[in-house]
Amino acid sequence: MKRLRLLLGTEVPVACILAFALFPWLWMMLSSFRPDEDLTRSPVRIIPGALTLVHHIELLQRTSFLDNLRDSFVVATGAVMLGLLLALPAAYAFSRFRFPGRRALRVQFLVVNMFPVVLLVLPLFIVMRTLGLLDTYLALIMGHATFTLPFAIWLMTSYIDGIPGDLDEAAMIDGATRMQVLRMVILPLVVPGLVAVGIYLFIASWNEYLFALMLAGRNVRTVTVALQMFIGENEIHWGLLTAGGTVVALPATVLFLLVQRRLVGGLTGGAVKG
Amino acid sequence: MKVEGRALPWLLLAPALAATVLLVLAPVMETLWLSLHDVILYRPRSRPFVGLANYLALLDDPAFWESLGNSVIWVIAAVSLQFLLGLGAALLLNRQFAWRGIARALVIVPWALPSVIIGLVWTWMLDFNLGILNQVGVRLGLLDAPVAWLARPDTAMAAVILAVVWQGFPFFTVTLLAGLQGIPREHYEAAAIDGAGRFASFRHVTLPGLAPVIATALLLRMIWVANSLDLILVMTGGGPGTATQTLPLYAFLRAWSGANYGYGSALAVVLTLMLLSVVVTYAVRSARERSA
Amino acid sequence: MKRRTLLAGATVLAATPLARPHAQKPVTIRWWYHFDDPKMSPAGLVEQFEKQNPGIKVQAENIPWGGGADYDTRLYTSIIAGIAPDAAMVKFNNLPRLMEMDALAPLDKQIDAWPGRSDISEDLWKLHRAPDGKRYYLPVQFVVLYLYARQDWFAQKNLKLPATFADFEGAAQALTGGERWGFGLRGGAGGHDHWCSFVLGGGARLEKGGLVSPEALAANRWFIGLYTQKHLFPPSAPNDGFQQVIGNMKAGRTAMTIHHIGSANEMTAALGDAITAVPVPRGPQGRGWTTFGDGSNAILAQGSNQEAAWKWISFLSTGEANVAFNKLSGQVTVTTSGAQHWAFQPQRFMDATTASLPIAATLPPTPQTADFTRTVWPQTTQKALLGQITPDDMMRVFEKHFFG
């Protein structure tokens, strides 16, 4: 009976949501194994007439996709580290201190994000050029980390807000400095928030196209730019695009699979009682 | 000790502030400045100052008002649907079941794909002749005949919203799932002792506990969706006609393909101001709630 | 370790010769290109060129096309920031804007002294002359749009391949029915190529008043009516791009469409002998208009290695190198010598291309053209196809866009 309730109340709805979430991706994956002529057959063949690895082999052997994956990985990992490094102390300051201009400053961070990026890329290009960073990992890492910073700070602040301030005070009465509180009290408790924000930063950087197109390109070329190469002026290389598109979703998904258990029990009742 | 206490928040904020000022605020200011000029991209040497002329022109531009209307529909529909679906998924994935870990990971697949892929895959699934959705719809009797979803003004907006909901709901799932961990377990236990059912404990424990994260996530997502144009650009280019042309897309087209960078900048500034007013309203309200 | 990874890109950049143009090392020129097929690399051509020109290194960079917008955005940005490449592939619709920016180096002197000049036909040279009479573009590839037709369906219905608008409409009517349509219209961005053939070929002219003359309005009314009243194009036409148009043809849902030799191989792979091509039909007055799809190289005025850049781009437009180049780009050689032994697509498509040359033209190079093709044409035409505005209103919008 309990098993049935779990099945109907939880597992079946979860399966439905997963079906919605995965169908387009699975459909894309399936089509990456189809021979070209299968793609323009009408009516659509749901079960492929034949399966082929030709698109995947071409992707690996005749394009630079593996290098591009590496570049994307370096950039996204760097953006997560830099982003968290900047966002965590800032969020702690917003959450625990009351200082003049606090609210205006918080809104300021958001304002920055409200501006359509397509109109900022030209001035930003010139900034990066002046810094001599064009076409480096650092340019994209800095660009991605900074432009996701408002989201990271705001989300982080609301997670830290959820940790009772009594804990800080108790630790400080015991003689800890603010920085020690941040490191030893807040950091362990805010792990679910770090995971959520980290995933957010990783995905935002991984999927970003405009900066990757404009601020890099030759030495550093991310997957989003590489995928765009499969869309020509007169031809879309659907096989390459679907093969590449299927692969591109995997790193973030696997990463989340690895870190999702951290989404449990960061803040248990016992810890709050202190 | 007191002095250190006062300087400390600024020290904590300094790195984030420095990066933002250099890489974002400076370009924003530059664009703001450009919006007061007649900037035609291909005339780099002639940029006359025109004051507010670009802003006044915008008031008389029917395409601006139409894009604004489209933007409102786009933001409200996309954000609310993403949120509802994301919340539902987060609550379900917070329960205990055997394959929870893998389910949590798989649900973020849509979010982990670049917009250009999402746009092309949905365009293809919605295709009139070769799209799987039309074919299945007709075979199951849900549709009388294939529908050209992206070529009809009455369905194109719904189609791009469907794609952006698909893309964006995992963001809410992940953020809210993390927020759910912050609700102390004893609150649920206390509610259960008081005899609260599942729905009552959702209303009186889960929702209030999640409220700060929900509010922040909604706000951030709204800003993101209001500014995003890549899915629309890939799927319809703003068409058919101007049925799916939102404000940032219009600003982009005017600035780059129309080469009228001054006018495009003015459109972007107006969009920012409108979003800003929403945020300020939110900040004032939440401050009032807190002091109440 | 982490630190090293972060800085790896910066080190590579600093080590490239372009950071030190003053050095007495070999000259390096940066060249931007875009090919349809990401599997094609110009590395072989670069190697051959560098062997012939020991003092010059070529750094070829593949820029995403992104419907033209991405390529242009990057090009403009790099020009404005003062770090444009030495040479780049370019198109006519950009010429006026690049000229206004003073971004291009005139090539007249070099072209006049160039032995390869006579291997490119006078027609092509004429098309590649800028409005100010100078030459900034060196042709490297081209296509001409023609009409694809399902000759098997034409044969079944005893129809002849269309030569006039009347033939075209008759055939489209006869071949429409069930889940099949006479003509696959590209109504999304880039579809002006289709529209131009019928409306500019049918009497409209791109000159002041020429888009709202009675002939122009009549031609446009007729063409839009083929969709709104006679339903000869698929319902999805207003949003269809080139991939839908070609996909529908390959899937056997449309009997005709307009494209060029760049898609000939995939068409024959799907349809074999059933597919053929003819020049686009001509209008009632015998006029015709088809899009000349140009592709050139230009030298950017900012660069300090213009001489080396010329050597590279003129190499690409010479004889066998140009044939090899077009094998990579999937288009047609601009050289007369190369065209004689062309074997990359079935002959009938090459014949249709050649037969289309007499009516091949381009939109006039004005600063408004790029915005017209990318935004104004699709938005306005889609509104007319959807009945939101009349066909006459549509022409008035175009007239206003070009001539105020």
Automatic annotation (TrEMBL), chain A:
PROSITE patterns: ABC_TM1. Residues 69-259 form the ABC transmembrane type-1 domain. Pfam families: BPD_transp_1. Gene3D superfamilies: MetI-like (1.10.3720.10). Keywords: Cell membrane, Membrane, Transmembrane, Transmembrane helix, Transport. The keyword RNA-binding does not apply. It comes from the Bacteria. CDD domains: TM_PBP2. It is a multi-pass membrane protein. Signal peptide: none annotated. GO terms for biological process: transmembrane transport. The chain crosses the membrane at residues 12-30, 73-95, 107-131, 137-160, 181-203, 238-259. Belongs to the binding-protein-dependent transport system permease family. This is Carbohydrate ABC transporter permease. It comes from Limobrevibacterium gyesilva.
Automatic annotation (TrEMBL), chain B:
The keyword Transcription does not apply. InterPro entries: MetI-like, MetI-like_sf. Residues 68-284 form the ABC transmembrane type-1 domain. GO terms for biological process: transmembrane transport. The keyword Electron transport does not apply. It holds the Pfam family BPD_transp_1. Keywords: Cell membrane, Membrane, Transmembrane, Transmembrane helix, Transport. It is a multi-pass membrane protein. The chain crosses the membrane at residues 7-29, 72-93, 105-125, 156-180, 205-226, 261-284. One of its GO terms (cellular component) is plasma membrane. It is found in: Cell membrane. Gene3D superfamilies: MetI-like. Belongs to the binding-protein-dependent transport system permease family. This is Sugar ABC transporter permease. The lineage of its organism: Bacteria, Pseudomonadati, Pseudomonadota, Alphaproteobacteria, Acetobacterales.
TrEMBL record, chain C:
GO terms for cellular component: periplasmic space. It is found in: Periplasm. CDD domains: PBP2_TMBP_like. Pfam families: SBP_bac_1. It comes from the Bacteria. InterPro entries: Bact_solute-bd_prot1 (IPR050490), SBP (IPR006059). Belongs to the bacterial solute-binding protein 1 family. This is Sugar ABC transporter substrate-binding protein. It comes from Limobrevibacterium gyesilva.
